């Protein structure tokens, strides 16, 4: 099946990947848009993990504080998400990532941020309390660490979850 410009545009709009990457993914998937998107998502995670590993020593001096108040005003979250440049911190993708993670914290009430916060030799129940290991509430097929890795792949810059606080009335 021939790859059309409309299909390339659709994949690009849904993934944020480059035009050539979208075209190649569509060709590899024989024109199947959903298969191309899934392949690009996996490539984005791999690219993000690779970039994060390469840029671990870089300073995380930029980012934003995201606030989220759940409907009814009974649950609230303050979240710090860090990146390396203010340019990335101002992008829509970065702001969306911060909002999605704040929503996750409100819904799932994690007790730990990631691996470095966990007690020694964590069991499966303790891992479920780690934000980075939880399944994303909007798409249970991916974990929060995959969501962050996708953002790193799209933005080309390392991102980390700084800290968060969840407030709930009556607790």
How would you describe what is shown here?
By secondary structure, this protein is α+β, with helices and mostly antiparallel strands. It folds into 2 domains: 5-54, Ubiquitin-associated (UBA) domain (Helicase, Ruva Protein, domain 3); 62-168, Elongation factor Ts, dimerisation domain (Tetrahydropterin Synthase, Chain A), CATH 3.30.479.20. The protein contains 7 helices and 5 strands, in the order H-H-H-E-E-H-H-H-E-E-H-E. The strands form 2 sheets. Strands 1-2-5 form a 3-stranded antiparallel sheet. Helix 2 packs across helix 3. The N and C termini lie far apart (58 Å).
Task: Give a nutshell description of this structure.
The protein has 171 residues and is α+β, with helices and mostly antiparallel strands. The chain is 47% helix and 19% strand.
């Amino acid at each position: 099946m021939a790859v059309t410009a409309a299909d390339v545009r659709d994949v690009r709009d849904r993934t944020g990947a480059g035009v050539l990457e979208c075209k190649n993914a569509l060709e590899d998937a024989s024109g199947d848009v959903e298969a191309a998107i899934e392949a690009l998502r996996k490539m984005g995670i791999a690219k993000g993990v690779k970039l994060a590993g390469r840029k671990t020593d870089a300073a995380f001096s930029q980012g934003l504080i995201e606030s989220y108040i759940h409907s009814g005003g009974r649950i609230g979250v303050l979240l710090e998400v860090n990146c390396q440049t203010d340019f990335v911190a101002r992008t829509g993708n970065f702001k969306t990532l911060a909002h999605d993670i704040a929503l996750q914290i409100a819904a799932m009430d994690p007790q730990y941020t990631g691996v470095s916060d966990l007690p020694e030799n964590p069991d499966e129940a303790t891992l479920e309390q780690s934000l980075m290991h939880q399944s994303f509430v909007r798409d249970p097929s991916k974990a929060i660490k995959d969501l962050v890795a996708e953002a790193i792949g799209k933005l080309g810059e390392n991102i980390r979850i700084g800290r968060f606080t969840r407030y709930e009335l009556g607790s």
